[in-house]
């Protein structure tokens, strides 16, 4: 469905940009509304996933959409393919779920209306940034979207207004700024060497050599820092410890994944055959799986368990690099499909797990695992949701995590890369260990009964629906996998 870049916009392009612009406009509209009128605003946003489904159908029939526009003498490029469409759909669903959850969270946590009003424009800005990242096809647009994502994410982390939140948010901002500096240095090197900023032009003009290698190293370092990949993850756990639950859900599900998405796009275009560097990234991912899992097993607070779990689960995504570099077409196809299915399944399950954990902490009034005794009797729905989400993280059937890990396992065996097989097995056992540690504490029967705060019904319902969606994605994985199979790698 490609058209000349200067041609009038197609119907599909208009729908795409309306879908990208609608969330920030809705966020600004909700900023001035009282909380009781937030639900109608959410209902206005519900057609967005339907529009994206229609775009995905058009892409599957006619191929990807692409275009460009001029801004102050600069030519900015965009592209929508099957992968970008799937990620846009995932983003819209998670944003709507988090917004619906946030309405109940405000009431349950007694957040002042004036403070909570700031959540909506920040949420809209985050939605716009993520949407731009999925469709951007040049380094300048990606940089602008990355900065917008970082600033809105930091703003959302600061909303609680506590000293702990301020310290964690400023730490996150510092890390993000260092990552941005590394990104800009890498972009400057590529621009000087090729004179191009668009991804397609860079892929055609760049040549293997020291300049491309150094530029890619700088870009990768900045993106790995923003994605909290081991050992650059020091900011992640403190940030989640103080953030509001809907913010943690969005951050763990989407924000850290956006940097990985950009890194994968650049890697496949600039240095797809850099085997040694790809193995280094795979090693970092393996260490992330092991370190995150071990720290989650040792954590004393429930939100810390979930946050350390994010560090470990992100490591699985890094295994894609050695399985894509210098391997056969069959191995690369399996690894490509597994990576994005793992990302989507983890996003749904991690958002559900953060919400379930937030419900347990908010209703029970405690945060330590040992204080959750008796939660099986008093908060069964929240605990069940936590368990259903954990099924995906452990990779048990029929979840999306099982399908993704099965494909990764097949790819590693076909490629003869046995270290990743060991990582997958050990990582699964570590995940089961810290999940069942939570349940062991919650099922202690000899616990004193204490008052449990009632929560709005929608909070448990939203979390449960997301956890079930992660299971459903495993059962219906053929549709997204078919889109990825037809599209192939960039």
Order of helices and strands: HHHEEHHHHHHHHHHHHHHHHHHH
| Helix/sheet category | mainly alpha
Spatial separation of the terminal alpha carbons: 16 Å
Number of strands: 2
Shape: globular
Computed Rg? 22 Å
- Helix content class: over 70%
Low-confidence stretches: 1-5
Strand adjacency order, main sheet: 1-2
| Overall average residue pLDDT | 85
Hey, roughly how much beta strand do the residues contain? under 5%
Compute the number of helices. 22
Q: Biggest β-sheet, characterized?
A: 2 strands, antiparallel
Topology:
Elements: H1 11-31, H2 38-45, H3 47-62, E1 65-71, E2 74-80, H4 82-109, H5 113-117, H6 119-135, H7 139-158, H8 163-194, H9 199-205, H10 210-226, H11 236-242, H12 245-270, H13 275-298, H14 302-318, H15 320-324, H16 329-364, H17 375-378, H18 380-394, H19 400-415, H20 418-442, H21 457-475, H22 478-487
Antiparallel strand pairs: 1-2
What does this protein structure show overall?
A two-stranded antiparallel sheet has the order 1-2. With 490 residues, the protein is mostly helical. α3 (47-62) packs antiparallel against α4, α7 packs antiparallel against α12 and α14 runs antiparallel to α16 (329-364). The longest helix is centred in the C-terminal third of the chain and has 36 residues, at 329-364. It is globular and about 65 Å long. It starts with 10 loop residues before the first helix and ends with a helix. The protein is built from 22 helices and 2 strands.
């Amino acid at each position: 469905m490609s058209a000349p870049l200067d041609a009038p916009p197609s119907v599909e392009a208009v729908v795409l940009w309306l879908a990208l612009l609608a969330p920030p406009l809705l966020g600004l509209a909700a900023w001035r509304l009282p909380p009781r009128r937030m639900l109608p605003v959410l209902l206005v946003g519900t057609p967005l996933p339907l529009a994206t489904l229609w775009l995905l159908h058009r892409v599957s029939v006619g191929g990807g959409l692409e275009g460009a526009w001029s801004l102050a003498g600069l030519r900015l490029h965009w592209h929508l393919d099957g992968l970008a469409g799937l990620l846009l759909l995932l983003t819209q669903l998670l944003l709507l779920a988090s917004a619906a959850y946030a309405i109940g969270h405000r009431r349950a946590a007694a957040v002042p209306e004036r403070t909570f009003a700031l959540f909506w424009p920040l949420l809209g800005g985050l939605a716009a940034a993520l949407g731009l990242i999925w469709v951007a096809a040049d380094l300048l647009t990606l940089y602008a979207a990355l900065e917008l994502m970082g600033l809105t994410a930091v703003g959302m982390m600061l909303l609680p207004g506590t000293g702990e939140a301020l310290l964690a948010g400023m730490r996150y901002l510092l890390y993000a700024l260092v990552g941005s500096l590394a990104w800009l240095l890498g972009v400057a090197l590529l621009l000087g060497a090729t004179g191009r900023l668009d991804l397609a032009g860079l892929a055609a003009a760049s040549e293997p050599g020291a300049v491309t290698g150094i530029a890619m190293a700088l870009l990768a370092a900045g993106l790995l820092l923003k994605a909290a990949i081991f050992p650059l993850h020091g900011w992640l756990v403190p940030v989640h410890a103080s953030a509001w639950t809907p913010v943690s859900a969005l951050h763990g599900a989407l924000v850290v994944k956006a940097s990985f998405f950009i890194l994968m796009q650049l890697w496949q275009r600039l240095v797809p055959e850099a085997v040694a560097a790809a193995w280094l990234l795979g090693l970092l991912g393996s260490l992330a799986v092991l370190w995150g899992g071990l720290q989650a097993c040792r954590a004393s607070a429930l939100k810390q368990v979930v946050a350390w779990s994010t560090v470990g689960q992100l490591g699985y995504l890094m295994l894609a690099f050695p399985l894509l570099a210098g391997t056969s077409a069959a191995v690369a196809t399996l690894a490509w499909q597994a990576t994005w299915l793992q990302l989507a399944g983890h996003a749904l399950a991690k958002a559900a797990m953060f919400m379930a954990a937030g419900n347990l902490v908010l209703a029970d009034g405690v945060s330590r695992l040992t204080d959750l005794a008796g939660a099986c009797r008093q908060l069964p729905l929240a605990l069940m949701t936590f368990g259903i989400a954990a099924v995906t993280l452990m990779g048990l059937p029929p979840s999306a995590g099982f399908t993704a890990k099965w494909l990764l396992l097949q790819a590693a065996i076909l490629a003869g890369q046995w270290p990743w097989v060991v990582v997958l097995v050990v990582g699964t056992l570590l995940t089961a260990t810290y999940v069942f540690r939570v349940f062991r504490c919650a099922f202690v029967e000899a616990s004193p009964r204490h008052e449990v705060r009632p929560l709005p019904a929608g909070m448990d319902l939203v979390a449960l629906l997301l956890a079930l969606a992660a299971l459903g994605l495993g059962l219906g994985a053929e549709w997204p996998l078919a889109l990825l199979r037809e599209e192939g790698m960039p």
